[in-house]
Amino acid sequence: MPVLKDRAIKSAGGLTEFKRQSERYSDDLRYLESKKPDLVKTHDKEWVAIYNASLVDYNKSLPELIKALGKKGIPEEEALIQFISSENILTLYAR
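The chain above was modelled as a monomer; its predicted structure follows.
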């Protein structure tokens, strides 16, 4: 696993940047989990994007959400994107 860890750090731009991205992702995840009950009410069956611990956009279409993030200058690979639904469904994410 050290090789995988080293590759992840290198691809992030170094250890400092890797730590920054990891902390932001953790903050974004905590924000999403704390707001999920409200998001289910307001954005049921929509994709939401969280960045810097705030809801930055949402859309029923994932490609449209990604376009909107680009227009806002938010890197899609750094945003936490999740499908919100009041139903229990299995979602698979692929690129």
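The mean pLDDT is 88.
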